[in-house]
Design goal:
The protein has 2 helices and 7 strands; from the N terminus they run αβαββββββ. The chain is of the alpha+beta class. The strands form 2 sheets. Strands 4-3-6-5 form a 4-stranded antiparallel beta sheet, with no helix packed on it. A 3-stranded mixed beta sheet has the order 2-1-7, with helices on one face. Helix 1 crosses helix 2. It is elongated. About 20% of the residues are buried. The structure holds zinc ion (ZN). The site of zinc ion has 9 residues, from loops.
């Protein structure tokens, strides 16, 4: 499952910071993740993978705030630039080209990839 390895990497990068915050007396309540839509099949699958992946870590039971960034299409033919409906893109295609929603000609799909932001949610 793609989400599991994604979560493993995410936890690996964030857990040392959780430990640091704990040692400073902070109560880490959760994690805010901003992620490209191309990285996950669904928010639900991502949440499930997080719950499973974090089970035996300092983030067990932590709240997960998920912000999903949609990819955008840039059309060289008509200049259309805007959000693209993600369910029409194959996430396994590293360089997707789709029909432009405005003019129907081939257009490059950009963005919506990678973990763009990770932030610990601390108790007040
Ligand atoms: Zn176009």
């Amino acid at each position: 499952m793609h989400e599991i390895s994604l979560i493993e990497n995410l936890l690996e990068s964030v857990l040392p910071e959780v430990e640091t915050q704990r040692s400073l007396g902070q109560n880490v309540q959760g994690l805010a993740v901003t992620i490209g839509a191309m990285e996950l099949h669904s928010a639900e699958a991502f949440r499930q993978a997080f719950t499973i992946g974090a089970r035996d870590t300092l983030l067990a039971g932590a709240r997960l705030e998920l912000t999903i960034v949609q990819p955008e299409v840039n059309c060289p033919s008509c200049g259309f630039h805007g959000a693209f409906p993600d369910d029409r893109i194959d996430p396994h295609n590293p360089d997707p080209i789709m029909a432009c929603p405005a003019c129907g000609k081939p257009a490059a799909v950009e963005g919506g990839r990678g973990i763009q932001q990770l932030e610990l949610l601390l108790a007040e």
